[in-house]
Design a protein that fits this description.
The protein has 67 residues and is mostly helical. Strand 1 and strand 2 form a beta hairpin. The chain has a two-stranded antiparallel ribbon. The termini are far apart.
Length: 67
């Protein structure tokens, strides 16, 4: 991974160790929150995700359901 991206991801990591932090808003993401896991393990709240990422997730879920 590019050093700049790795620095950003490490800066956004949880100081409490283990609890993921949303890369968009910086708030913690609990298991109860609706969230998206991005490539590389980063997590964002569903409300913080772009329309494109959210719509792909819905399309994938529909395809899995209909398979």
């Amino acid at each position: 991974m590019a050093p700049l991206l790795e620095n950003i991801r490490s800066a956004m990591s949880s100081p409490r160790g283990g609890r993921p932090v949303c890369l968009v808003c910086g708030r913690g993401v609990s298991q109860a929150d609706d969230s998206l896991r991005l490539r590389g393990g980063a997590v964002v709240h569903r409300d913080c995700a772009t329309y494109d990422a959210a719509s792909r997730r819905v399309a994938r879920a529909r395809a899995d359901r209909d398979a």
